[in-house]
Design goal:
The chain is mostly helical and 151 residues long. It has one domain. The chain has six helices and no strands. The longest helix has 31 residues.
């Protein structure tokens, strides 16, 4: 609806989203990847690798989303934006998992942090791919999948 009614707002929001996502991914890499809670040589190595991997993957998805929309490949743009959104919202799930496991287990925060990061990231990647497949738009992606049933 936003894309159809207010395309200028859609573009502006998309640009803000990409810039914000890139800033978040770079800061996540710098903080979590280079300075994890447990140190790079200790239990923080798991967190550092998760931060580096997911930060890199977010940057990759945002670049793919941007380049696909510049090529006017709307279906691919949509898919890459969904992937980036799924990854970026994974941090909220990570925090919920972290708090829950910290309260219910005797495992230290430094060990749990990296483990919950991997778990939440994987869950969100899977959820994003499932959503993409469930809502795949036929053709060039000009018509939204919900609008097809209303014809």
């Amino acid at each position: 609806m936003l894309r159809k009614r207010w395309p200028g707002w859609h573009r502006t929001a998309g640009r803000l989203y990409i810039v914000s996502g890139l800033l978040g991914a770079v800061s996540g890499f710098l903080i979590g990847g280079l300075n994890p809670f447990g140190g790079l040589n200790g239990p923080g190595f798991n967190e550092a690798m998760a931060s580096a991997f997911f930060s890199g993957y977010v940057i990759f998805t945002l670049i793919c989303a941007y380049t696909s929309v510049r090529r006017r490949d709307i279906p691919r743009h949509r898919e890459w934006m969904i992937r980036s959104f799924a990854l970026m919202t994974g941090i909220a799930t990570e925090r919920i998992l972290l708090i829950t496991l910290q309260a219910t287990t005797d495992v230290s925060l430094t060990v749990l942090f990296g483990t919950t990061f991997w778990l939440a990231g994987a869950l969100h990647i899977i959820a994003g791919e499932v959503w993409i497949r469930m809502t795949k738009t036929p053709g060039r992606g000009i018509t939204h999948w919900k609008d097809i049933d209303q014809r």
